[in-house]
Amino acid sequence: MNIALMAHDGKKELMVQFCIAYCGILAEHSLCATSATGRLIAEATGLPITLYLSASQGGSQQVGARIAYNEIDLVLFYRDLGEDDTDVNHICRLCDQHNVPFASNVATAEVLIQGLKRGDLDWRDIVNPKK
Q1: Residue 86 pLDDT greater than 70, yes or no
Q2: Shortest CA distance to 33 belongs to which of 70, 1, 4?
Q3: Phi-psi region of 58 (alpha: psi -120 to 50; beta: other; left: phi over 0)
Q4: Measured in whole angstroms, how far is the alpha carbon of residue 97 from the centre of its chain?
Q5: Strands 102-103 and 30-34
Q6: Neighbours of 60 (CB within 10 A)
Q7: Are 44 and 16 in contact (CB under 8 A)?
Q8: Nearest 5°: phi and psi at 94?
C-alpha cells in the first residue's frame, strides 16, 4: 500500500511518535510525505520515505495529484486546529472522491493502521493493483 504522511507544525512530533510506534507495520508499505514531516520521520525511524515539497511550496498538491490518480491508498494528515484548513480540506475532499481512507487525528490513524495490519484495507489492491 502507498501511504501519505502529512502533519501541521504543531502535530509533527505526534506523527513522528506514531511512526515510531507503528514502524513495523509501516515498513511493509511505501511511504511518502511532505518534506519536513518526512525528514523528521525518516530520521527517527530509518524508514524510506519519498519526499515531496513542503506543503507551502506545493507538497499538498503533489500528494493530492497522487490521490486523484489512485496512487495513494491511505492518508494520515494530523491537523492542528489553529492552522489554515485549506490543505486539509482539499486532501480530505480528494480522499472522499476517490475512496481513500483518511485520518486527521491519532485515534483514527490507529484504527486504520490496525486495520491495515489485519488486511481490512486489502480491497485497495483492486483499485490500485501492484505493477
Answers
A1: yes
A2: 4
A3: left
A4: 16
A5: unpaired
A6: 23
A7: yes
A8: -65, -40
Over residues 13-31, the mean pLDDT reads: 98
56: DSSP letter:
G
Helix (H, G, I), strand (E, B) or coil at 50: strand
Domain positions in the chain? 2-127
Q: What angle do CA 49, 54, 60 make, to 5 degrees?
A: 85
Query: Is-contact 3 30, C-beta < 8 A?
Result: yes
The tens digit of pLDDT for each residue in 90-100 reads 999 999 999 99
Residues 77, 102: contact at Cβ < 8 Å?
yes
Contacts for 30-34: CB closer than 8 Å, 24+ residues apart:
30/1, 30/2, 30/3, 31/2, 31/3, 31/4, 31/5, 32/2, 32/3, 32/4, 32/5, 32/63, 32/66, 32/72, 33/4, 33/5, 33/6, 34/6, 34/59, 34/60, 34/63
By the 10 Å C-beta count (0-12 exposed, 13-18 middle, 19+ buried), 130 is classed as exposed
Q: What is the mean pLDDT of residues 43-67?
A: 95
Instruction: Give the residue among 18, 119, 28, 131 at the shortest CA–CA distance from 71.
Output: 131
Domain 2-127 listed as CATH 3.40.50.1380: yes
